[in-house]
Amino acid sequence: MKEPSERLGVKLVGGLREVSTPWAGVSLVVDLFRKLEMDRTADRVLPAKRSSKGLKPGQTVESFVLLSALGGEHVEDMELIRNDGGLAAILGYQPPAAETARQWLDSFHDESLMAGRASQGSFIPPESGALAGLKEVDRKTIWAYARNFEPGLDVTLDVDTQLIETNRVEARYCYEGYKADQAMKVCWAETLMVLADEYRDGNVFPGKDIVRMVDGAFDMLPPREWRVKVRSDSAAYDQDTLDHWDGRHWGLRSTPT
């Protein structure tokens, strides 16, 4: 008796191999990422690779987006999605190894920009070219959100800093007396989207460059007649800072310190 394939006139070469993944639902995230052309944007604005081998910048960014969406907490978790054959079939490529992913993140640091850092006092280095490129990927995401969800014209720019205790030898002491790094972010409170963020030394005054950060966050929004308010703790309670935002006809909301 002939096999089904023979009766249909089909010749199977090499057989078929079935793969599966517990993360099939992530295909919706992949479809959205690519429909918004985030991968193409990353390929265009992020530094080009020295070698043609390996993943493109857009694929690496996509891998980190998926890592976050799937609950990854550190770079080592990249191995979990890298070794999933079903996920690789959805993506069309294998996500980077953990060490490769870490090296890619390290490439955003430009040591030459740290030349002005003194042994005493606080210091915020200029933004590297790679980080500036990544900001354009963020801008495309924010504009796509505003275009598709029409969240309204009210924008509360919520600015705050968080101290993160660390044991790194080169870390600086924060005002609470322990070694720390400092994460500053500006959120669009009505949508919970992060419009701007900066990682700083722990000894940097929380109000330092707050105008630059908040104004930069506003610049990430698409052109519209936004009704803007700034929400901050006492870090923003400086007359020149308040006069600046008043000059832009922005309001101010306070939060407890």
Structural features, described:
- The chain has 257 residues and is an alpha/beta fold.
- 37% of the residues lie in helices and 17% in strands.
- Helix 10 (239-247) links the parallel strand 5 and strand 6 (251-254).
- The chain starts with a helix and ends with a strand.
- The model has no long low-confidence stretch (mean pLDDT 90).
* Sequence stretches where pLDDT stays below 50 over 5 or more residues: none
- Rg over CA atoms: 23 Å
The helix tally amounts to 10
Helix content: 25-40%
Q: What's the shape?
A: globular
> How would you sum up the major sheet?
6 strands, mixed
Class per helix and strand makeup: alpha/beta
Q: What portion of residues belong to β-strands? A: 15-25%
The total strand number stands at: 6
Order of helices and strands: HHHHHHHHEEEEHEHE
State the end-to-end distance.
82 Å
Keywords:
single chain; about 260 residues; alpha/beta; Nucleotidyltransferase, domain 5; 2 domains; 6-stranded mixed sheet; 6 strands; globular
In short:
This protein has 257 residues and is an alpha/beta fold. Helices cover 37% and strands 17% of the residues.
Task: Please render the helix and strand layout as text.
Layout: H1 4-7, H2 27-35, H3 38-45, H4 57-69, H5 78-82, H6 85-91, H7 98-106, H8 129-149, E1 154-165, E2 172-173, E3 179-188, E4 193-201, H9 210-218, E5 227-232, H10 239-247, E6 251-254
Helix pairs in contact: 3-4, 3-8
